[in-house]
Structures are given as C-alpha cells and as structure tokens.
Amino acid sequence: MPLPERRPSGLPPRPPSDGLGWAVVPLITLGVGSPVSFLYAAVRRRSAGLAVAAAVYAGALVAAYEALLAQGDEPHTLGLLLLLGTWIVSAMHAVGARPRLYPPADPSDQRNRRVVEAARYRRTLREEARRIALEDRGLAHELRIGRPDLGPRAYDDGGLIDVNHAPPQALGLLPGVTPEIVDRIVRCRAEQGGFISAEELALQADLPPRIVPDIAEYGLFLT
Predict the structure, then answer these.
(1) So what's the pLDDT on residue 220?
(2) Which residues cross the membrane (predicted)?
(3) pTM attached to this predicted model
(4) How distant is the alpha carbon of residue 3 from its chain centre?
(5) Cβ atoms of residues 64 and 79 within 8 Å
C-alpha cells in the first residue's frame, strides 16, 4: 500500500511588529503620548537620541500646559502653539523614525520562522502522541499512532513511526535509515519480537551511531 504523503503542519508564528501602532501614538493622542512613545522606543532600541527626543517632547508639553494655566491671552496663545507644534513635530518624527526602528522583515526570514515554528509544533505533537501511547496503548492503536502505512489518519502524531509494528516501507521513513538497515531491523524484530528503545534497537541491529538520536526522536516502540 503506498504511504500517504507526509505534509508538514504547524501553528503560524506570530508576525513581527511593523511599528504602526507605535508610530500613530503621537498622532492620535494629539502629541500628549509622544514622551511615553519615544521613551519606549529609546529603551527598546537603547537609543540616547530617542531618549533625548522623549525628554524634549515632555518638556514642551510641560511648558505648554504651564502657559495654558497662566493668566492672559499671550501665554494662552503660546501654550496652544506649543501643543500644536509638539503634536505635529512628534507625529512626523514618529512616522519618519518608524522604518529605522521597525525595518520590514525579510521574506526569507519570515519563511524560516514559519518553518522553525512548524518543526517545533510537530515536536510537541510527537511528545503528546508518546504520552498517549504510554498511558493508553489501546487508544494509541485506535489512533494509529506511528502507523503512516494505515492510510489517512485523523490524528496527527507528528511523524512518529512504530518500529515494532510498522512495515518495511514505513520504517524507511525514519531519518538516515537505508533499505539495508530496514532489512536488519525487520530481521531482528522477527527474531526477538520487538524493541523497547532506540538504544536497544541500535545494539541489536548494529545501527550507525549517527542515526540513533534521529530514531529516538521519530521512533515509537509500542508492545
């Protein structure tokens, strides 16, 4: 029976921030949020220049509110001008600084992150499938854990192979296992009825040491 195509699955990684939320804070807060916004960026990027900008915007806002609270039309007008200037300048500053602080991610980097996340997720699938196999062998058999040769399965075990029960074509899916090694595994399995670990398999079937960690990762040893 032909084996089903093995397709990777995984949870999509969270995309990196594009900095849009950070850049619009000074704009939507009428400049009031600019000191906090630029202070956050200064800490995040460890930038003295951004820290100075945060201090300047904070000082301008303090001066503006002091002028607004002062008596007379002239201080009041000065306060409004300071507020308007802080708003416009900080908003333009944030928009201009955004590409440097949040550079667009390289497509290859995003692809690599997705591949890494998918591989990590499939590792969690294997760990969960092993836990089921240890706690409930009957359920493991019903879910066909480690048996890609049994056709489409609703349960994704992350690519496990049941070394003690899978046919030769499924054993050949184990990383680094050649047809000659498959023959040795099948012969040893028939002689002693199965194995309890990758280490025992390696000893009995005289496997190359380099492939033992991969067999331990993907091999399942159900009795």
Answers:
(1) 95
(2) 20-43, 50-70, 76-95
(3) 0.55
(4) 29
(5) yes
